[in-house]
């Protein structure tokens, strides 16, 4: 019975959350109705087989959207490769904070299909957002109705990746709240967007200081058994230059649920922000609420996802529709 009722509940939550987020000028929910009406079906059909064969795809595509939208806005700049013909436009992927970004090629594959079905109409930026939306939904999270109409950038910005545009792996609560407040997120929405850590992995590279630096006071007294597990998975003297080791963010690493908050309350947060959220007076009550109520988490996450997807969008006469996602058309 629960499986039948749940999708209906999620749809109600999506529309309620969407109503509280004014859509930026130039975006609309029916943007491609005439120019590419099969867009969302095409994206879903391309991704579903990949989700089945490789469950790591969903968290990878969600992360791809995060790392695109937080640098220059949601403009597909993260997909631009370094080109001999455009050496002054460096790729964003070379930045340390983009370590482990994967599945960019899926966006290119979807774009190629759409260039056959409706050439020159759909931006790579919109495809990234739709792919992330599908990733959340296929993993058990809310199906988020997103307005479309973004256009693609003409350049990337590796310098913005290096600065505070993307959060560092050791960011704390106050800096996280400040960072996402710039995108118009409330405290509740910021705690909800951190819930995306319920999917995927954390590379050992990002928690070595937290585990092994004596001068680095832990944000909390980590569960000793959990700390031992992390150290077993991330040995102290692993060469970081060859670091492919990782730990799961939570036991249901491929399911979008509220277990992230339950783990944080049990002192099993992997990153510093995961550990601090249940301790900070501004966020502790929200963590406890989301840990007990996944519907409210889904609603706030939907609202936060939409606000992230609105970041710095290019619309109308601004930006372009790139014919290939990884290159800027000459």
UniProtKB/TrEMBL annotation:
Domain Plant heme peroxidase family profile: 26-329
Site (Transition state stabilizer): 63
Binding of substrate, residues: 167
Any Gene Ontology biological process: response to stress
Binding site for Ca(2+) 2: 198, 257
Enzyme Commission number, as recorded: 1.11.1.7
Localisation: Secreted
Example GO molecular function: metal ion binding
Superkingdom to which the source organism belongs: Eukaryota
Keywords assigned by UniProt, alphabetized: Calcium, Disulfide bond, Glycoprotein, Heme, Hydrogen peroxide, Iron, Metal-binding, Oxidoreductase, Peroxidase, Secreted, Signal
Cystine pairs: 36-118, 69-74, 124-325, 204-234
Keyword GTP-binding: no
Signal peptide boundaries: 1-19
PROSITE patterns named among the record's database cross-references: PEROXIDASE_1, PEROXIDASE_2, PEROXIDASE_4
InterPro entries per record: Haem_peroxidase, Haem_peroxidase_sf, Peroxidase_pln, Peroxidases_AS, Peroxidases_heam-ligand_BS, Secretory_peroxidase
Catalyzed reaction equations: 2 a phenolic donor + H2O2 = 2 a phenolic radical donor + 2 H2O
Binding site for Ca(2+) 1: 68, 71, 73, 75, 77
Family: Belongs to the peroxidase family. Classical plant (class III) peroxidase subfamily. Belongs to the peroxidase family. Ascorbate peroxidase subfamily.
UniProt function note: Removal of H(2)O(2), oxidation of toxic reductants, biosynthesis and degradation of lignin, suberization, auxin catabolism, response to environmental stresses such as wounding, pathogen attack and oxidative stress.
Protein's name in the database: Peroxidase
UniProt gene name: LOC110801469
